[in-house]
Design brief:
The protein is an alpha/beta fold and about 900 residues long. It is built from 31 helices and 26 strands. The strands form five sheets. Strands 4-10-11-9-8-5-7-6-12 form a nine-stranded mixed beta sheet, sandwiched between helices. Strands 16-13-17-18-20-19-24 form a seven-stranded mixed beta sheet, with helices on both faces. Strand 25 (about 860-865), helix 30 (about 875-885) and strand 26 (about 890-895) form a beta-alpha-beta unit. Helix 7 (about 180-205) runs antiparallel to helix 17 (about 470-480) and helix 28 (about 815-825) crosses helix 31 (about 905-920). The termini are far apart. InterPro entries: 2-oxogl_dehyd_N, 2oxoglutarate_DH_E1, DH_E1, KGD_C_sf, ODO-1/KGD_C, THDP-binding, Transketolase-like_Pyr-bd.
Length: about 900
């Protein structure tokens, strides 16, 4: 009684109002019980029917806005309207979309004439409705060809304008796609390429994994058509994300990767540098240019691991970055994202829904994604839908964002290509997501060494008897005289010969980007983390930026708390009080923007900051007549020619949003991209992104990304889930200078750290453990001069300690420093020096060695808040020992080993914290 069913119910109710006998008895009883004007409504459904019944009687106008006109009045007139509407709504249930025809045809009574009280006597009635015209008998055949052919359409739940646009296109064909002879030959050639590659590899590399596309080869002519049509529609970039199924086929036959390069990978002859781990061939990305009628289109296939759907948000982030670079931030029509799904994965993996939820959100919208589900009806090994999903279709997740779905039979290549073109046109017209459910089968097992008949005996008997889509389509074209009978075999021989040569076999590929990088990345390739960067800012510029980000528009009324923050920040920039964390951070962004860099900050409460420290976005407290809008992004008003800035309050998602930001950062090296976790340990929900992309993409794929992760971290008695950002997990991932792990302890350090990240020609992920209590700690402040001088310090020595008095050196990070500092002062200790390790990785051995040389024979203590089996201790111990002098000893002061990151009781937390501090200082 909602969504797509609403129009069907409306039609039935209109029939009932015109003639109660025209509807089935069960519906008549329903309407009589819920729609009588004398009824007292007891639910929203009853109220809706009551309201409808009280309106003037109108003919049902159907889903296209036109009345179905019949020569006979009465029940035939209204029944025919409902009958036609039912096909638009439910025709997909009877469509011939399964090439294996495994299941019994579903009985759909709503698609029968008798359901509406119509009989054979009504078949001669003349009907006109949308694209349908003729006698009812003729219209019935038109409906069957349109809605029950090789494509099953689901679209009646989308908004009216889009629905009418699709309906006109769909009903205009009535199942006849009218491709030219040349277009049909091209489809056959592409099918030949798809099948030919798989068969060639199957024979040449027996038993090796390739995750064959056989059974859904029609994907290749579909992608070919999409790319060529996209060029004509003004698309400049196409970004594709897909899992391993069919990836090699797409690389060779769409992207133009040389077969000889692929064969070298199969043969194990491809060599890499010693510090390059590489990855399996069906995870690798690729770039190329394809010539189209509208000019060259750049194709990019995203690198991705076997986490299947995790690539979806990565693609979206990359597309958003490309759109920003091209200045296409309104229509978003010049960069096209295409995501290929598996049928089991699209229904089973939550990141799909997380990513779809971003589709229409202002900080993440990319103008719609074209989704193709390569549906082999098996998933991994499951073929029984009772074990695969709850929903009817694997694509039902699309309905959460009102995306239309076209279910299409992979054995009808022309229907598949037409559906692909329709989907592309819809995306370009309405800038929304659209799904194609390409229903085929999987000729081989999950991989080429798997025997699927163990679990799907009936399915694989049918598959073994299937001649293949290419053979069936070739026979069709030969029968219709489009090709000679020998041509199909000629195409096979020509393609095989091209493979043997090893050169590119895809059409119109202009440039192979396999060994090249984008010009924007050239300056950061091969650089090292020790490269210097001047991050200081002159006082005049700093004041200019500070004034800009603290100026309140005349018509803006700030919350009194935010107003106090703005006033305090103006005092900071005037030198009347020291800088706090939030102001230093905003100044870092503001000065970078002033220098022409771009900034994109995203998080679940990034605008104000989870701990209300940032206040980069102000909200007008006036409720009426707001001439300057309800929001004011302070950083957007730094200077006239400043860089782009986005501060985005994201959805309550970690996995999809972090992957999105990674995709953005991996595409645009000129933008400082930051993701802030609401609490540091919430990053747990995005662990695949951290493990498979952020920490390892350079080693596996040679892909750099300067993404910053801001992770609130610190033990303050808030329990196990709000204390630790799981520092140890990031430390475990460190190797080969892959990421930076930083625990800053002052606002000035934050300022220089953020500026260094983009100014320095070095693009590696930056993981920041940000102390929550440091945001307002009165000790954790910096003078303005620390921003106009100096730089980020990997290690901060204790300048107050007297060398001759010190026999104990405490090494620590983050907020624990200030607690140790306060306790040392209160105890009046002169023998303890406290050294801050601000950057845990890459570790600054030489700096620490120089500091420890000043304290010969001193006892060195590593102090941390985390339990001994967590935090940094087990990872920095070796680094510290390498920096120590002869005669120095090393011990630790930590919490005891624990299964939980932190205790949940405040009193126990305080006891443990004091114990760590006292043991670190030698008081216990």
């Amino acid at each position: 009684m909602y969504g797509g069913s609403a129009s069907f119910l409306e039609a039935l109710y209109e029939d009932y109002l015109g003639d109660p006998s025209s509807v089935a008895p069960e519906w008549r009883r329903f309407f009589e019980g819920n729609g009588a004007p004398t009824d007292t409504p007891h639910s929203p459904v009853q109220q809706a029917f009551l309201t409808l019944g009280q309106k003037p009687l109108l003919r049902f106008t159907g889903l296209n806005g036109h009345t179905a006109v019949a020569t006979k009045e009465g029940k035939a007139n209204t029944g025919i309207s409902a009958y036609i509407a039912a096909y638009r709504l439910l025709g997909h249930l009877r469509a011939k979309i399964n090439p294996l025809d495994l299941r019994k045809e579903e009985d759909v009574p709503e698609l029968s004439l008798t359901f509406y009280g119509l009989t054979d006597a009504d078949l001669s009635s003349h009907v006109e409705d949308g694209g349908f015209k003729g006698t009812l008998a003729e219209v019935r055949e038109q409906l069957l060809k349109t809605y029950c052919g090789s494509i099953g359409y689901e679209y009646v739940y989308i908004p009216s304008e889009e629905r009418q646009w699709l309906q006109k296109r769909i009903e205009g064909t009535q199942g006849r796609f009218n491709f030219s002879p040349e277009a049909r030959k091209r489809i056959l050639r592409k099918l030949t390429s798809a099948e030919g590659l798989e068969r060639y590899l199957h024979v040449r590399y027996v038993g090796q994994k390739r995750f064959s596309l056989e059974g859904t080869e029609t994907l290749i002519p579909m992608l070919d058509s999409i790319v060529l049509r996209a060029g004509k529609l003004g698309v400049k970039d196409v970004v594709v994300g897909m899992a391993h199924r069919g990836r090699l086929n797409v690389l060779i036959n769409i992207f133009g990767k040389k077969p000889s390069d692929l064969f070298a990978e199969f043969d194990g002859k491809k060599t890499f540098s010693s510090d390059f781990a590489g990855d399996v061939k069906y995870h690798m990305g690729f770039s190329s240019d394809v010539q189209t009628e509208g000019g060259p289109v750049h194709l990019a296939l995203a690198f991705n691991p076997s986490h299947l759907e995790i690539v979806n948000p990565v693609v979206a982030g990359s597309v958003r970055a490309r759109q920003a670079r091209l200045g296409d931030v309104e229509g978003r029509s010049t960069v096209l994202p295409i995501v290929l799904h598996g049928d089991a994965a699209v229904a089973g993996q939550g990141v799909v829904a997380e990513t779809l939820n971003l589709a229409g959100i202002r900080g993440f919208a990319v103008g719609g994604t074209l989704h193709i589900v390569v549906n082999n009806q098996v998933g991994f090994t499951i073929s029984d839908l009772r074990d695969a999903r709850t929903s009817r279709y694997c694509t039902d997740v699309a309905k959460m964002i009102d995306a239309p779905v076209f279910h299409v039979n992979a054995d009808d290549p022309e229907a598949c290509v037409w559906a692909a073109e329709l989907a592309l046109d819809y995306r370009q017209t309405f800038h929304k997501d659209v799904f194609i459910d390409l229903i085929g089968y999987r000729k081989l097992g999950h991989n080429e060494s798997d025997d699927p008949s163990m679990t799907q005996p009936m399915m694989y008997r049918k598959i073994q008897a299937h001649p293949g889509t290419r053979a069936l389509y070739g026979q069709t074209l030969a029968k219709e005289g489009i090709i000679a009978e020998s041509d199909a075999n000629t195409y096979v021989e020509e393609y095989r010969a091209a493979l043997e040569k090893g050169d590119t076999v895809a059409d119109a590929v202009e440039t192979d980007f396999n060994a090249e990088r984008s010009k924007a990345w050239k300056s950061v390739l091969g650089t090292h983390w020790t490269a210097e960067a001047n991050t200081a800012v002159d006082p005049e510029t700093l004041k200019k930026v500070g004034y800009a980000i603290t100026t309140i528009p005349d018509s803006f009324k700030l919350h009194r708390g935010v107003e106090r923050v703005a006033k305090a920040r103006r005092d900071m920039i005037d030198g009347k009080q020291p800088l706090d964390w939030g102001m230093a951070e905003n100044l870092a962004y503001g000065t970078l923007l002033n220098e022409g860099y771009n900034v994109r900050l995203c998080g679940e409460d990034a605008g104000r900051g989870t701990f209300t420290h940032r206040h980069a976005v102000w909200h007008n407290q006036l409720t009426e007549d707001i001439p300057e809008g309800e929001e004011y992004l302070t950083l957007a008003h730094v200077s006239e020619n400043q860089g782009r800035v986005e501060v985005i309050d994201s959805t309550l998602s970690e996995e999809a949003v972090l992957a999105y930001e990674y995709g953005y950062a991996a595409t645009d090296p000129s933008t400082l991209v930051l993701w802030e976790a609401q609490f540091g340990d919430f990053a747990n929900c995005a662990q695949p992104v951290i493990d498979q992309f952020i920490s390892s993409s350079e080693a596996k794929w040679g892909r750099l990304a300067g993404l910053v992760m801001l992770l609130p971290h610190g033990y303050e008695g808030q329990g196990p889930e709000h204390s630790s950002a799981r520092l140890e997990r990031f430390m475990q991932l460190t190797a080969q200078d892959n990421i930076q792990v930083v625990v800053p302890s002052t606002p000035a350090q934050v300022f220089h750290m953020l500026r260094r990240q983009i100014i320095r020609n070095y693009r590696k992920p930056l993981i920041v453990m940000t102390g929550k209590s440091l945001l307002r700690n009165p000790l954790c402040v910096s003078p303005l001069e620390d921003l106009t001088n100096g730089k980020f310090q990997e290690i901060i020595p204790d300048t107050a300690a007297v060398r001759e008095d010190v026999n104990r050196v405490v090494l620590c990070s983050g907020k624990l420093y200030w607690e140790l500092f306060k306790a040392r002062e209160e105890a009046g200790l002169k023998n303890v020096a406290i050294v801050r390790i601000e950057q845990l990785y890459p570790f600054a051995h030489d700096q620490l060695k120089a500091i420890l040389e000043q304290y010969p024979n001193a006892e060195v203590v590593w102090a941390q808040e985390e339990p001994r089996n967590m935090g940094a201790w087990m990872f920095v111990r070796e680094d510290i020992e390498q920096s120590m002098q002869g005669g120095q000893t090393l011990k630790d002061a930590t919490r005891p080993r624990s299964a939980s990151p932190a205790v949940g009781y405040t009193s126990k937390h305080n006891q443990e914290q004091q114990d760590v501090i006292q043991r670190a200082l030698g008081l216990k």
